[in-house]
Amino acid sequence: MHSEALERRQLYLRQQRDKLLALKKHEREKQLQAAEAKMRPKSAQVAQTALAGQPDPATSKNLHVRRALAERLKSEVVGHL
To answer: Is 38 buried (19+), middle (13-18) or exposed (0-12) by CB count in 10 A?
Structure first.
């Protein structure tokens, strides 16, 4: 009788431990995602949204400006050589 109670108690405690570990893991993942969102450079965030298939109108405008600037710089550098 005593061993049955001990086994049930062990099982209960294991289940509680597993629940706590799962909860802590989930919380750590949330914190990691929040930290990554803050720490990631803008270009990485843009790349992730592009891969996810969510085009951002502001991003396409920025891309257009960057391309125009790159072309201008390229023509200036190549023109001086």
So the answer is: exposed
**Torsions phi, psi for 60 (to 5 deg):** -65, -35
Residues 25 and 1 in one domain: yes
As for how many domains the chain has, the answer is: 2
Q: Same structural domain for residues 28 and 52?
A: no
pLDDT digits (tens, 9 = 90+) for 2-27: 899 999 999 999 999 999 999 999 99
Torsion of CA 71, 76, 80, 81, to 10 degrees: -20
In sign, the C-alpha dihedral spanning 44, 47, 51, 55 is positive
- Sequence-distant (6+) residues with CB within 8 A of 28 are none
> What is the C-alpha to C-alpha distance for residues 51 and 37, in angstroms, rounded to an integer?
16
Structural domain that includes position 23: 1-39
Give every CB contact of residue 45 below 8 A, 6+ residues apart in sequence. 37
